[in-house]
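Suppose you are handed a protein chain with no further information: no name, no annotation, nothing but its sequence. What can you learn? This example shows the usual starting point.
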Amino acid sequence: MIPRIHKRGKRTLGLLYYLYGPGTHEEHVDPHLVASWDHQAPDPGRHPGATYKDLQRLLDQPLDNIDPADRPAKHVWHLSVRNAFEDRILTDEEWGDIARRMVAAAGIDDPDEGAGCRWAAVRHADDHVHIVATLVREDGYKPDLNHDAARVQAQARVLEAEMGLRRLNKGDGTAAQRPTSAERHKARRQGRERTAREALREAVRRAVAGALSEEELFDRLAAAGLLIRKRVAPSGDLLGYKVALPDDLNKDGEPVFYPGARLAPDLSLPRIRERWSASGDGDDQGAPLADRASSVAASGPAAARRRTASATWQALVVIEHSDDAVAAAHIASAGEVLDALAATSAAHTRADLRDAALAFERASRSHVRAERGRDRALRQAARELVRGGPALGRGEDGATTAMAIDMLFFFITAAIHWHAKRGHAQQAAAARQAAEHLRAAYQAAAAQPLGALHQRGRHLNRPLLQRQTEVLRQALPDLAEQILAEPGWYALAATLTDVQAAGFDPTSLLSEAAGHRELDTADSVSDVLVWRLRRRADLPAGTSDMVGAERRAQRSTSHARRQAPGQTGRRPGRL
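A reasonable first move is to predict its three-dimensional structure. Written in structure tokens, the prediction is:
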């Protein structure tokens, strides 16, 4: 339930004409009164002979009880209360009760006082109601409306629980501005899936992901097909920007422009510049971002995804052990990584990754001001994803996508805990939604590469499979039986074979991979260990032909079995 207090007005009659009228886009259906201050107000929508003027006179009558000089300059108070799309349709009686409790919570009318303001609640759609009130009480005094917005929000949370409606978290003022009713109706009329504001927000976020300069940002926005207007000072300095969709026009046939700050708080030009100003400071990741990205672009999307997995893994430690400002920067940069990954994803993961990025957008902002600079590795990963280009979704591209998503899932799980500990309810809820979308994207991305590894594992000869079972029991005695019972065990066995063939000690590397991070949130422990091992050993993530490696591992096992007791024949592990 979303209560919204609109700007105060001067003309009660004008607001009534709108509420009882057809609406800007013919969206108002059967406008009628559901409640009023005295339960007897005339209803121009249902009562024959009742007029808008009759209702307006009654609402504004208390104004005549005070001197004109004491009347409020803007005496019309307007509140709308809207339910979520998935909520049940409420009856008029239920909406009337909601209206009475909302005006009482706001300080407009209190039945116990007996001298409240006059008000009326009009319903013209299934999912919301409008309340109009005159800001002078019956006794001539003005109501106390300090913190009225906070009070109606608190009442909405109580009503949600009592009426079984979708329960929203308390806002903190960092959310992006919601589309207006007019924008939503315009989108439906034009057959758009989303409003122009929402489409522009996503386009700008993708353009910002990994960008290093104003020139690069505006080049990306232009390449995305957006119209751009820049606000320039007399000195020639750039002060801000606006963007528009070419086919989103106003009544005069002109494009509708939105400033970056109106799309989201962190998309204003000064906030975007904060990312650039710190992009060369505060860490020891090596070459400058632009230099490293140029080499990665030539390597393609698989290399970019592999680096994304590594950068995300390293960032996990940061958000758990660094101060809040640094952790907030990494969480914000993870939003850039998700935007870049969604923009370059293959068709079978595109929708889920896009939904994950859109959900996490809310989790990437809080009142903790991000300290930019030490988040450079994640911003670099986002840049490399963009410059690496679209992934094909198969082979090494698809497998490294699954690897990157797996690491991002653990990062976002850590972000959920970080926000929850600090009381960021909306951000934690948004991160949970993002995690669910990532889970679905992972299942789509991992099916083919893990399936291929599974088949390889099933075809290992018996002595080699027994050897990998021994490795598992030795490295993870507490988890061995659970992993052996999982369908992913054969993929893990094939990966352990590759680890051994690459010259690593599989027992020690497996123990390290399991102990480095928690595994409680994993649907399949064996799947998680596959990606951790392949990343740590720098093994091909995809379905590349590993028959040669298997044969080397099999020969190594046969040789070990022929050796004298006490000799393992294994190479020393290396990291």
